[in-house]
Every structure is written in C-alpha cells, then in structure tokens.
Specification:
Length: about 100
C-alpha cells in the first residue's frame, strides 16, 4: 500500500475525472462528484464509495469470479470488480478488482 503524502488541500471548483469503461466496453470519463484523493506520485486515485452512494450512485462491489453471474465476460472484463450505476440509471461503469482493491 502506498499512502497519499503531502499537505492536504481543499480545492474549490476542481473536478477529478477518471477514465473508466462502461458495460459495453466503451471508454467513459467518470467525473467524480465531491471528494476524492489524488497523489501525483501514483497512477491511482481514491474515490470515496460512501460519498458516491450519498450522491445517488449505486455501488456493486464484486470479485472476478462473479463476472459471468453478473452477465460480464471475463475475456472482456478480466479484472471484473462489480459496477457503479451512475445517476442517469442507464450508464454502468465496470470496476476493476486487483489485489483485493477496487
């Protein structure tokens, strides 16, 4: 595990976007609402699941072994980790699960 380091900053009006894929395998830019953690020294950022749920996103944490049960092919989504249904209730972002982290 690598911690986020440095001084915390509250940045009003700054949005974080994450490149993801949707349920069809298409690239989707997920604009993260509210709060997230970013460390420029790493390739990953932390997105707070609780804040997404409060904002109306439906979180479905799963593991790769559940892909077929959930209707996702492991050949396409080899690191399947569940999904986030965004507030339009049509777009489903497919999460990756690796090393017990989503």
């Amino acid at each position: 595990m690598q911690p986020a380091v440095g001084t915390a900053k509250k940045m009003i009006g700054i949005l974080m976007g994450a490149v993801t894929i949707d349920q069809h395998g298409n690239t989707f830019i997920f604009v993260v609402p509210d709060v997230s953690v970013y460390d420029p020294g790493t390739s990953d950022s932390l997105i707070l699941a609780g804040r997404l749920m409060e904002a109306g996103y439906n979180m479905n944490l799963r593991i790769p072994g559940d892909a077929l049960t959930d209707g996702f092919a492991l050949a396409t989504f080899s690191l399947y980790g569940g999904s986030i249904t965004i507030t339009d209730n049509r777009t489903v972002i497919v999460m990756e699960c690796a090393e017990y982290t989503w």
